[in-house]
Specification:
Order of helices and strands: HEEEHHHEHEHHEHEHEEEHHHEEHEEEH
Number of strands: 15
Distance between the termini: 29 Å
Strand order of the largest sheet: 4-10-9-8-7-5-6
Largest sheet: 7 strands, mixed
CATH superfamily of the largest domain: Type I PLP-dependent aspartate aminotransferase-like (Major domain)
Structural class: alpha/beta
Number of helices: 14
Strand content: 5-15%
Helix content: 25-40%
Shape: globular
CATH topology of the largest domain: Aspartate Aminotransferase, domain 2
Length: 430
């Protein structure tokens, strides 16, 4: 598509957008008595208007039924995770049996590591990207310590080449094969939170398996953002949160994927709880853990009904919109933002007689290598630009030490939003 930096062009794209009506199904924050242009969906998604209705249903059933809500509620709590499974599986490209909604992200990551990080004296190393999200770094550090290894020796960090901000897939593959005899697991983010780079999970999983290692991914910044195909990519396991692109509330519940080749192995190490026990026998209260078939066998405690109700409301919108339609719009919307930002850079570079650009986009320019996030390093005092945007009703987010992250989310951001972002940045540099 040939973009134009005009309001009329942006408004025409909005008229053609088959997803535009979803914007009205979210509450938009206000600042200075005006709605903001919200670009923080990669940190916390907006609240669906249907979320309150969904939670109120569970409050009402709790009030009327008490404990009998487990069996007699409109959505019986005993089976609550079942109401989420099929739609969640569509979002991540999995079979329903391979997905379960439970717990929180890092708790689920540790649970998965119990099953899939089984180090030996020789094969014990964990591979991850440098500057992964801190929670992942802490989880891998403590997993290594738990098994008696020094994290400095056990964790291999993948670093970009000198002068580059993102990783090259061929370098990741080469590093996997370099450590083929000592690598136990590759555990990376699906999308790096800082740069916005989306990794080639299919090739990474294939390479890990070629050397006898497991492949797992934290999809916190990928689920609801990319069009995932976890089953077909042959990923061993994945975890994700639901409060970013999946719009399911602060600290919302989490999702887990376990590939079907692992899902029905009772002998596989895991930490068990009664909600993962055979559903038909769960309330018989007997000793002897018999895991549910599939990913559901990794559950611990009974369903978190209230956060799951919010997630249920959000998943219904994703199912209606279609992840393939959202991804298609996302590529165009993010591409338009990139075009606007590059135009501003070019204009000021010309005006300043070829001096350095005002900012640099460090997220890959190829749509297949990113989601809807663009990470920007400003040449001078980036925090000042961030604060200016915030006060002028554009809400990106700031990540230390020097990045402004902008995420135009296809479910509720518009092309006119993107055009107006450019106009406000132009005002800053006048």
């Amino acid at each position: 598509m040939i973009f134009e930096n005009t309001l009329a062009f942006a408004q025409q794209l909005d008229k053609q957008d088959i997803l535009a009506h979803f914007r009205d199904r979210f509450y938009m924050p206000h600042h200075n008595k005006k709605p903001v242009i919200y670009l923080c969906g990669n940190s916390l998604g907006l609240q669906p208007k249907s979320a309150q209705v969904a939670v109120q249903q569970e409050f009402d059933d709790w009030a009327k039924l008490g404990v009998e809500g487990h069996f007699q509620a409109k959505n019986p709590w005993k089976f609550y995770h079942h109401f989420l499974t099929e739609k969640a599986a569509k979002v991540v490209g999995a079979k329903p049996s391979e997905v379960v909604i439970m717990n929180n992200l890092t708790a689920n990551l540790h649970l998965m590591m119990v099953s899939f990080y089984r180090p030996s004296a020789k094969r014990y190393k964990i591979m991850m990207e440098v500057s992964a999200f801190p929670s992942d770094q802490y989880a891998m550090e403590t997993q290594a310590k738990f098994h008696g290894f020094n994290p400095e020796e056990a964790i291999i960090e993948l670093k970009p080449r000198k002068g580059e901000y993102t990783l090259r897939t061929e370098d990741i593959i080469a590093k996997i094969h370099e450590h083929k005899d000592e690598l136990a697991i590759v555990m990376m983010g699906g999308v790096n939170y800082y740069t916005g780079q989306a990794f080639d999970m299919a090739r990474i999983a294939k390479s890990a398996h070629e050397v006898g290692a497991m492949a797992g991914f934290d999809l916190a910044h990928a689920a609801g953002n990319l069009q995932l195909q976890l089953h077909d990519w042959d990923v061993d396991f994945a975890v994700w949160c639901t409060y970013k692109y999946l719009n399911s509330g602060p600290g919302g519940t989490s999702g887990v994927f376990v590939h079907e080749r692992h899902a029905n192995k009772p002998e596989l190490n895991r930490f068990a709880g009664w909600w993962g026990h055979n559903e038909e026998e769960r309330f018989l209260m007997k000793k002897g853990f018999k895991p549910m078939e599939g990913a559901a066998g990794w559950q611990l405690s009974n369903a978190q009904v209230f956060p799951m109700a919010i997630h249920k409301a959000s998943l219904e919108m994703f199912d209606e919109a279609g992840i393939e339609n959202l991804r298609k719009k996302s590529e165009t919307l993010t591409g338009y933002l990139e075009f606007i930002l590059n135009e501003i850079n070019s204009a000021y570079k010309t005006r300043d007689e070829g001096q350095n650009s005002k900012f640099k986009i460090i997220t890959p320019s190829d749509a297949k290598d990113r989601g809807c996030q663009l990470s920007i390093i400003v040449s001078e005092n980036g925090k000042k630009l961030f604060d200016y945007l915030y006060e002028n009703n554009v809400w990106p987010d700031w990540r230390e030490p020097d990045v402004i992250r902008m995420s135009p989310v296809p479910m509720y951001n518009s092309f006119e939003d993107v055009f107006r972002i450019g106009e406000i940045i132009k005002q800053y540099y006048k």
